[in-house]
């Protein structure tokens, strides 16, 4: 397998992936040294942290961002690159807490979230291969019934982009596979190069005055009216703190860590395909995703590779050979790729919450400590929304959106640090068995 990685400075340490090998030039931001002071300290150099920092800087606050490794090192730089409308799953379940109007507002924010990404890319001309067009794939007739309800709901919300239901005989216009019984096209969602977006947003943050530090893992936090955040070689004093580490929070804050479960997701990238073959797989160059618990999601890259992902793992153990694990799944969808080489394989952790709603709020006992995590596979857009909501709250702006998310309680996964993953894996196995019925 090809594991080429684009050369960079001595601090280059992104995990090997197609994205790392095709990334923009990567500046090496310094490690934090000495004592620094800012209005806000943001921990985490992924989409949550970067976009919170951008939004805060645009509101006139001084910001220091600390990243333990490299900007975009985690899920932000390794995900499937799918930019899909919506936040959360089954938002109606929260009506007893936030009311029917609150549910509607969350649904509207799920549409706004994609617009935030769209506008950021356009305003700052970030080169990240943004391509519009997405299709939900129906594995069973009941999936298609749900799509019809989704399409009607989008119309009721005033969604301004084209949506269209596809029947089984129309599916080859979107995907060159006989695996699906229908679909829902959404031209307001799409796909992009996530690591290049993260790197571009880091450059935007720096232009706005944000001080970025890499290789600056947080070792301790002193809480209080003013927080003090410690790293191996320095510290930051700030009036407010944002924790945006998601699945990589580790033991930094046990209160938040127990509410997010790291789950592995994996991707393979083929060798570049001929224009004819690539067109036969995805004739409209859309991103697509099916509806199974262990879902498949895939798309074409700008250089016509098939990027095929899925197989969400809750066990905490990665496959020894990701390509050997994922290739048969790809061939179930596209048996015509049997002779095609796999050039890249990689995985990473996404953050899962028990109720599948992004966790955006502040600590009750530390009201100047804010957080955003547990995007449950919808992080590309939800992180950008979270950045806006957090910045509104920290800067003192009225933020009904922040208050809505903050009202929703989130349970701590049972079983503690070492048992919660196996327990959830058993639960997800039950859901997979139900799919067979």
TrEMBL record:
<feature type="domain" description="FAD dependent oxidoreductase">
    <location>
        <begin position="39"/>
        <end position="392"/>
    </location>
</feature>
<dbReference type="InterPro" id="IPR036188">
    <property type="entry name" value="FAD/NAD-bd_sf"/>
</dbReference>
<dbReference type="InterPro" id="IPR006076">
    <property type="entry name" value="FAD-dep_OxRdtase"/>
</dbReference>
<protein>
    <submittedName>
        <fullName>Gamma-glutamylputrescine oxidoreductase PuuB</fullName>
        <ecNumber>1.4.3.-</ecNumber>
    </submittedName>
</protein>
<dbReference type="Pfam" id="PF01266">
    <property type="entry name" value="DAO"/>
</dbReference>
<dbReference type="GO" id="GO:0005737">
    <property type="term" value="C:cytoplasm"/>
</dbReference>
<dbReference type="GO" id="GO:0016491">
    <property type="term" value="F:oxidoreductase activity"/>
</dbReference>
<feature type="region of interest" description="Disordered">
    <location>
        <begin position="1"/>
        <end position="20"/>
    </location>
</feature>
<keyword id="KW-0560">Oxidoreductase</keyword>
